[in-house]
Amino acid sequence: MDGASPSVMLGMLAGVAVDDGGADDLLEQRSARDRPRLALEPRHATIIILILVLALSLSLTLLVQQGVRLSSMSWDEGATRASDAPSASPPASSSSPGPTSSESSSAPSDTGSPNEPSATPSPTPTTTSTLIDLNTATAEQLQTIKGIGPVTAQRIIDHRAEIGRYTSVDQLLDVTGIGAKTLEKIRPYVEVRS
Fold first, then answer.
1. Which of 17, 107, 144, 163 has the most CB within a 10 Å radius?
2. Coil vs helix vs strand at 164
3. Which domains does the chain show, CATH number per domain?
4. Global pTM exceeds 0.85
5. Exposure pattern of 143-166 as b/e (b: 16+ CB <10 Å)?
């Protein structure tokens, strides 16, 4: 330190190195620091935006599909519960063990239909122009109508056996578990042929 010049000593005390280039070098270092590290051309930015838009639209499409499936499943479960709920209270109305065994054998096919409505083997009334005749319909045909589960279909058939023959669709009100609202839901799909 004894042999150092006064300018070097002053530079060391001020914190300036001997090899500093001055104000120009300092400005160049600041501009290099402020420069972006990743430079994108407009075409690269356009490609990135298109990829992000595609990913967003795909995720929104999947979200909407999932929402539609969920709402249709919950609607089908609600309709199944509504048609089967009255059947849980009066099981003593059917005295023969035959209907209960057919109800239990039909139940697994009914639980599979909300998940895959197109897997139903018999045609639905909405896709065909013919209505289901209450006097000749089987339990499977009646179950194709929304709002009629296996228990309600069997009750319709049992009531038909009791009265001999339906003369009007309004006679479905006499069937346990079918009220005015349910009758209005199924009325467009059924008829009584003479």
1. 144
2. coil
3. 50-191 (1.10.150.320)
4. no
5. bbbbbbbbbbbbbbbbbbeeeeeb
